[in-house]
Amino acid sequence: MSSDPGAPPGGPAPAPPAVGLVPALRGVALAAAVGASLLALALAGFLLLRGVADGPVPRAIAVVPGGLGPTGTLVLLLAVLLAVMGVLSALRRAEARLGEARRARYREWARQRLEAERAAAAPPVEPALEGRVEAILLVDLIQSTELITEHGDEVFRDVLRRVERTFIPVAKACGSRSVTGHGDGLLFCFERAEQALEAVRGMYARLEEINRDLPPGAAAGFRASLHVGETVADARGSRAGLAVVKAVRLGSVMELHYGRGGGRNSLVASAEAWPALAAVGATAAPLGAMELRGLPGRHEVYEVRL
After folding, report:
1. Closest Cα to residue 205, out of 181, 169, 161?
2. Cβ-based neighbours of 31, under 8 Å, separated by 6 or more
3. In a 3-state reduction of DSSP, which class is residue 231?
4. Residue 217 backbone class (left: φ over 0; alpha: ψ -120 to 50; beta: rest)
5. Cα 114 from chain centre
6. Residue 224 in contact with residue 284, Cβ under 8 Å?
């Protein structure tokens, strides 16, 4: 397996070498520090015994190589110990910097790989759909900041992979025309709003599969928002336009309405999307006319019962 963190997104995950130069030097410095400490303790004990001994110390014990004498040798050993401890501290800092650099390179590799997987999973672009009215569904991971700070990058990346492996096939089965990454979520486009509703229900039905075996407190929750409007597709199939902006802004409604982390595993729909959902028997609680950041006026929003 390649250990190069700069491997292409489709390549194997980067792995740090088993033994690095800095850890090896740190081991040598640690061994030297332990040795110097033991010698210093032994010499200190010798001096103590010499000071309290009754009568002269035997010449074979009193003579210290180098002519420094016991006290001078003790001072020298202490100086060596301090120097080795300084080197050990510097090596530890260097190892920490190298470790952070490796982690940063791995995070960049993981980000590129996720983008490559998203691109591979996206259906082919249909030029005929440009400028068409579509149902735009945003499914967003809630409280992602807390997930990262409390459980770390590795758990966060694992959750994102599970979400993509689970949600994208469900959306495709329901007729999704496109899927693109949007922040910590996924943006899907469908021909009809009822297809998007079916997809959300299918996604939420598989939440147990996503959250299985995650650390306590790391269970993923989502908020979905649905709008119907005209979109424009670029060469990669990514959708843009005011309708996409409105679908994204709708995603913040539940948090504004219920507070931080509120509206877990919910779906809100715009007034443009709601009639199609009502026509297939869906029910909803009107949340009233709400302001959406960056959009003029007030907009009727519905919390769809799933």
Report:
1. 169
2. none
3. coil
4. left
5. 12
6. no
Over the chain (306 residues), the average pLDDT of each successive run of 10 is 44 49 64 68 61 46 51 66 74 77 77 73 55 93 91 93 96 94 91 98 96 93 96 83 95 85 92 97 96 94 96
Torsional sign, CA 111, 112, 117, 122: positive
Q: Where exactly are the structural domains of the chain?
A: 21-110, 127-304
With a threshold of 0.90, does the pTM exceed it? no
Q: What is the pLDDT of residues 116-125, one digit of tens each?
A: 776 666 555 5
| Alpha-carbon distances, residue 152 vs 76, 96, 107, 211 (angstroms) | 46, 17, 12, 16
Cα 129 from chain centroid?
34
Provide the CATH number for the domain formed by 127-304 in this structure: 3.30.70.1230
Instruction: Please provide residue 129's backbone torsions phi and psi, each rounded to the nearest 5 degrees.
Output: -85, -10
Within 18-68, residue ranges assigned H as helices are 21-52, 59-62
pLDDT, tens digit, for every residue of 238-263? 888 999 999 999 998 988 888 887 88
Closest CA to 255 of 100, 154, 97, 145: 145
The rounded distance, in Å, linking the Cα atoms of 161 and 179 is 15
266-270/222-230 β-pairing = parallel
Distance CA 285, CA 271 (A): 12
**One-letter amino acid identity for 156?**
F
Please answer whether residues 70 and 64 qualify as being in contact, where contact means their C-beta atoms are separated by less than 8 angstroms. yes
Residue owning tokens 């147990």: 208
How far apart are alpha carbons 152 and 146 in whole angstroms? 9
Residue 224 bridge partners (DSSP): 139, 267
Reduced to 3 states (helix: H, G, I; strand: E, B; else coil), residue 63 is: coil
